[in-house]
Amino acid sequence: MLRELTDSIRVGADFRRFERLDEGTVRVHLSDGSTAEGDLLVAADGANSGIRRQLLPDFPVTVQDTLPIYGRTPLTDQARDLTPEPALNGFLGVSGPDGRRLALAAQRFGRSPADFGLPAADDYVMWSVAAPAAAYGPGLFGLGAAHLLAKATDTVADWHPSLGALVRLGDLRHLVPASVQISERPALWPPAPVTLVGDAAHPMAPAGISAGAALHDAGLLASRLLPDAPLLDAVRSYERDMLDYGFAAVAAASRNHAG
User: Fold this and answer.
1) What is the DSSP string of 196-231?
2) Burial class (CB in 10 A: 0-12, 13-18, 19+), 105
3) Which of the chain's termini has less CB crowding within 10 Å, N or C?
4) How many whole angstroms separate alpha carbon 214 and alpha carbon 206?
5) d(Cα 195, Cα 130) in Å, to the nearest integer?
6) For the whole model, what pTM was predicted?
């Protein structure tokens, strides 16, 4: 499927703004000065969505005090021995009473990504080390990879030694700090040839369900976009249902994150 879309994929330019055209279509302006036009613009650009900021400038989002550092450790024999069994077969969350958290999930490729026209990749353990902002100190978002890895390792240094050792083996090419954003359900906005999916639509605390909600969004939207259905009616039908289950997922993620 992705191979079939390769000619339609453009990389190397960021979203700048969109404009609605008189014929009901939408034009997107990109950072390299180019534009693209279509019947429907779908914002799949995450919790900091620039498309959502233009469409819904008053969208209610709260930035949490907790800051995660995301990384990955190659799934070598050593890493496999250090990884708790539940994380090898699913998602594992560990939390402490002081707000520190560790999330682990192994990514193992049953088939080579090359089979799907994607770059080759090795198996790894995804991890996220989160702590209150004060625990990391100022300047987290300006640190280089080695310092980020040191911060993540130090954060879990007094936990079980295998956890700290697993984080310490993190790949320096895949370290990034992030913020946690949680949204409140907005009022339904006027219909437009622009809509939202995933974290652009309902930012939520990391609890292992955000990706599933995004895939649900995409499948539901695709099912409503039928050849004989008026576009804005189809989009509005999707948005009504998406807001219901999407913000139920936000609430569930907040409960799981707090627990």
Assistant:
1) E-GGGTS----SS-HHHHHHHHHHHHHHH--TTS-H
2) buried
3) N
4) 13
5) 31
6) 0.78
126 beta partners? 72, 105
pLDDT higher than 90, residue 256: no
Q: What confidence tier does 3 reach under pLDDT thresholds 50, 70, 90? A: low
Q: In angstroms, rounded to a whole number, what is the distance separating the alpha carbons of residues 163 and 32?
A: 43
Cβ within 8 Å of residue 61, ≥6 positions away: 47, 181, 182, 183, 184, 203
How far is residue 134's CA from residue 138's CA, in Å, rounded to a whole number?
A: 8
The backbone torsions φ and ψ at residue 87, rounded to the nearest 5 degrees and listed phi first, read -75, -20
Inter-residue contact 242 to 219 (CB < 8 Å): no
How confident is the model over 122-156, as pLDDT tens digits? 899 999 999 999 999 999 999 999 999 999 999 99
Average pLDDT over residues 76-81: 95
